[in-house]
Amino acid sequence: xxxxxxxxxxxxxxxxxxxxxxxxxxxxxxxxxxxxxxxxxxxxxxxxxxxxxxxxxxxxxxxxxxxxxxxxxxxxxxxxxxxxxxxxxxxxxxxxxxxxxxxxxxxxxxxxxxxxxxxxxxxxxxxxxxxxxxxxxxxxxxxxxxxxxxxxxxxxxxxxxxxxxxxxxxxxxxxxxxxxxxxxxxxxxxxxxxxxxxxxxxxxxxxxxxxxxxxxxxxxxxxxxxxxxxxxxxxxxxxxxxxxxxxxxxxxxxxxxxxxxxxxxxxxxxxx
Length: 272
Description:
With 272 residues, this protein is α/β, with parallel strands linked by helices. The chain has helices spanning 3-25, 51-54, 59-63, 71-74, 92-101, 114-127, 164-174, 194-203, 213-222, 238-247, 255-258; strands at residues 82-86, 106-111, 132-136, 149-155, 175-188, 211-212, 226-235, 262-270. The two termini are 30 Å apart. Residues 1-9 and 28-42 have low confidence and may be disordered.
C-alpha cells in the first residue's frame, strides 16, 4: 500500500470516528452500520455489554461504542495491572478496564480523533474514574515506552489500520514480557468473493480491511507473538446479511456468499 493510500485510509477513519462522536452528542448512536437517528443495524455490533456493565458508565460512553465485541469481558485483568486500549473511542472499554484493575492499576486509552478524545475525557469525568489517561496518537505509533503495559486490548480497530503489521508490532513493543494481547476484531473465515466483500464493507464499515483468519495468525507470529488463539464470538449468517444489505440498498444476492464467513472474534496472544 502506498503512503498516499495509507494517509487516505487514516483520514477516512478519523472523519468517520469524529462524526460518530458528534452524533453521540446529539443523542444518536455511533455503532457500525448506524446513521444519524438510527441504532445498530447488524448482529455483530449490537448488545455487546450486559446491564451491569452499562450501569457503571455514563450513557454517552455506551452510545459511543463502535465495537464488535467486549474485550473487557473476555480478557483476564487483575488488580494492579496496566491496560492499553487501542482506538479507545468514547472510552467504554477503558473505563470498564480501570474498574477491574483497581486503584493500584492503570488504564490507557489511545485514539487519534480529537472529538472522541474530548468525549472520552468527559465520560471519565462523569464516571469519576481516576486511574485512566487518554492519549492522542495512532496505533501504528503508540506514544508509550517499550514494555509499559501488561495487557493490550482493542475493540474492532485493528481491522481498520492501513498498516496492520506495524500496529501489531507496536502492540508487541509496548507489552512487558509475558504480556497479553486480547482484542475483539472482525475476521474473515475462508474466501470471501470481492463483490461480496465490497457490499458488506458498504453495509458495515467495521468489516473494511478485515483480515482472513490464517493471515491474522501469521501476522501475529511474524512480529513475535506466541500462544495465538482466535475464538469466534458472533458469526454472520445469510439471513443476517440479507436483511442488512437490503436495508442499505445493496445487492441481497451476495448474502449466501457471506454466510458463516464474516465473524467477530476474540483474538488472544502472548509476548514471550
